[in-house]
Amino acid sequence: MSDEVIAIASDHGGYDLKEILKTELEHLGYAILDLGCYNKDSVDYPDYADKMAAALLNKSAERGVLICGSGIGISIAANRHRHVRAALVHDGLTSQLSRHHNNANVIVLGGRTTGVDVAKDCLKIFLETDFDGGRHQRRIELMS
Questions:
Q1: How far is Cα 129 from Cα 97, in angstroms, rounded to an integer?
Q2: Which among 8, 67, 103, 141 is least surrounded, fewest beta carbons within 10 Å?
């Protein structure tokens, strides 16, 4: 069981996958901070990216998961915040590299573009992979 809190949020296009990944996070032993949305009613993804940014800034969560239909819009909205490094990933390798090289603190998935098994794999790899530091640290500092 981890003491780490993982925030998770989605718009309506990512709601179903969010609910599945919440169960996966529980199975992996993480505490969950669900920032919404809470049903399939249409909502605006920038609002949920902002909620994620606030949760990371006030340290309610150490890392997060964001999901919209494609993952594109919510990742753009999240990365407007300098302390957020949201990586839209598509497979295990991009998930791993998002942590190794970019020290991503938010993984982003497409609820309509990413299969459940791939999403679970990406999430597990994201949570288990450490930042390499070294030459990559300077680049992180340039973005923050």
A1: 9
A2: 141
Would you name the residues annotated as active-site residues?
68, 101
Q: Which residue ranges form the domains of the chain, and what is each CATH number?
A: 5-143 (3.40.1400.10)
Torsion-angle region of 133 (φ positive above 0: left; ψ -120 to 50: alpha; else: beta): left
In 3-state terms, what secondary structure has residue 64? strand
Give the list of residues 6+ apart from residue 73 with CB closer than 8 angstroms, or none. Answer: 45, 46
53, two tokens: 């940014």
Q: Which residues of 121-134 are buried (b: 16+ CB within 10 A; e: fewer)?
A: bbbbbbbebebeee
Encode pLDDT of 4-60 as tens digits. 999 999 999 999 999 999 999 999 999 999 999 999 999 999 999 999 999 999 999
